[in-house]
Amino acid sequence: MNKCSLLTVTALTLTLALATPAQAEEIFADSFESGDMSATNSDGFNWGRNNRTSVVTSEAAVYNNKEIYNVPPGNPDWTPKTGEHSLRFRYASGEFMTEQRFDLGAHYKDLWLSYWIRVPTNFVQGSLNSKFLSVWPSTYDREGTVTWNTRPNGTGGANLVVSDGGVTGKEDLPTLFIEVPSDRGRWMHVVAHIKSASGPEAHDGLIQLYRRWENESSYTTIHDKTTADTWDNTTSNQGISQGYIFGWANDAYDDDTEWLLDDFSLHTSSPINGEASSNRPKPPVLTLE
Questions:
Q1: What contacts 76, CB < 8 A, 6 or more positions away?
Q2: Count of C-beta atoms within a 10 Å radius of residue 77
Q3: What is the per-residue pLDDT across 36-73, written as a single tens digit (0 to 9) for each?
Q4: Contact 81, 190 (CB under 8 A)
Q5: Average of pLDDT values for 254-260?
Q6: What is the distance between the alpha carbons of residues 204 and 194, in angstroms, rounded to a whole number?
Q7: Separation CA 206–CA 166 (nearest Å)
Q8: How far is CA 113 from CA 99, 179, 210, 263, in A?
Q9: What spatial distance separates the first Cα and last Cα of the chain, rounded to whole Å?
Q10: How is 267-281 classified by DSSP, letter by letter?
Q11: CATH number of the domain at 26-31+96-269, please?
């Protein structure tokens, strides 16, 4: 191989190496293709009991704390994001609760959660807050708890706010999250990042949340708090160990309202690196003359 060819191969290798994103370390994933809630990992991840949630196909609900086969009345759209199954969250008309809890089986001081979620086709945010996602180290709604809520944006859609410390911390960083009617029925990829503070008075924890609609190539930063008090004063075991998706809606929906969730995963480094993003700089290319 001559010198010019060698330089060309070297340049191509460098370009490919720089163009290939680092892969996030995945510690758990569940796309619900098992048809139940049995997925686990070496740390003992465990889905809690179904609380007005169920595993569904496009035709029927197939799991709700046991195997079932319930064909719904009417013609609901339960098309999953991928595969043949997804997790349905059903807020019945006038009812306040649907929730899916999980236990990580370990404490993670630097945790990334990601999942696809579909906005209900009839979504309307009520006049009060609704839980979206909450995680905590050992004791819920104390220092160390991080909770996201949706709040009305004044036009039927929702802003997303975050509470650093659960009920002990104020709601912060209201950011436009869902617009109606344009976002109804759309799938979004949500990535939440929580990093523990280095000490009880350090206030150097991280709370970040990113959102990418399915037809977008890059993520929108919804929240980026770098001075978080993500330290649990009730325990020596710092790091997120438990959580729930959705939860209590203080203003119940007027009509039956259903969210779908798919491809839930947990990581110890950013999973965004593996996704297309128009904000990612292009790799350098070596030009030979």
A1: 258
A2: 10
A3: 999 999 999 999 999 999 999 999 999 999 999 999 98
A4: no
A5: 97
A6: 11
A7: 15
A8: 17, 23, 10, 11
A9: 17
A10: ESS-GGGGS--TTSP
A11: 2.60.120.200
